[in-house]
Amino acid sequence: MAKRSKRMKQIDQMVDLNKVYSLQEAVRLLKQCPQTKFDQSLNVALKLGIDVKKSDQQVRGTVSLPHGTGKNIRLVVIAKGDKAKEALDAGADFSGGDELLEKIKGGWTDFDALISTPDMMREVGKLGKVLGPRGLMPTPKAGTVTLEVAKAVKEVKAGKIEFKVDKTGSINNAVGKISFKEEQLLENVIPFLQAVSRSKPASSKGIFLLSMYLSSTMGPGLKIDLQSLSLGA
Question: Helix (H, G, I), strand (E, B), or coil: what is residue 80?
Fold first, then answer.
């Protein structure tokens, strides 16, 4: 059995893993825990009451976090001509057509998000094996297949994130950094939860949000009292 670090022993004394915390309590406690040398992310893990085998119960959507993720998003835009220039002017890190497609085909995925104009999606679609497993494939629903590239670039850079249910019926997203103020983290978490709640499939019956855990990158996972949250928005 691995020896627990001094930091983890301190956390063990502060945290009760059998307790159900309010969202505010959990955020406060994770901020009070001994920190690492890097700025940890605050992560939300949700278990949903859906049948993932049913195609009409796939949950996916986007939400703009008021205070962003705290992460510098490296953004690629696949476009040609004026649209490629428009993307760079709006703040994209890389923008172009065939040369970028070839680079990605060769295995380059050193970026966090990808936007494409509709006319380039036929070629982008061929990179499914590279982009798909990393969650980088653009989609119209996520607003990442669009002619309004400048708008899309600014939204992603400002903190617009995509959430998507996995094969276990769970959603996991980073919603800020532990260094954020408590209020900022709460103001990011609530819209995220509201957006997920709104994405409940019509065919999903019963309780949609089954459980929620809040954690930091290298910290404990705290169970959240969903009953205490007001998500009516």
Answer: coil
8-state DSSP, 203:
T
| Residue where the block lists tokens 């505010």 | 24
Residue 157 in tokens = 């850079």
What are the backbone dihedrals phi and psi of residue 89, each rounded to the nearest 5 degrees, phi first?
A: -65, -30
CA distance 197 to 191: 10
Phi and psi, residue 144, nearest 5°: -100, 0
- Identify the band that residue 1 occupies on the pLDDT scale cut at 50, 70 and 90: low
Mean pLDDT across the chain, nearest whole number? 92
Separation of alpha carbons 43 and 27, rounded Å: 10
Say if strands 209-216 and 221-224 run parallel, antiparallel, or are unpaired.
antiparallel
Alpha-carbon span 77 to 98, nearest angstrom: 12
pLDDT over 80 at 3, yes or no: no
Most distant CA atoms of the chain, gap in Å: 59
Q: Where are the beta strands (DSSP E) in the chain?
A: 20-21, 41-48, 60-64, 75-78, 94-96, 113-116, 160-164, 170-177, 209-216, 221-224
Rounded to two decimals, what is the model's pTM?
0.81
Q: Which residue from 85, 125, 79, 75 is spatially nearest to 105, judged by alpha carbons?
A: 125
What is the DSSP pairing of strand 75-78 with strand 113-116? parallel
Q: Which two tokens stand for residue 186?
A: 């709460």
The pLDDT of 36-49, averaged and rounded, is: 94
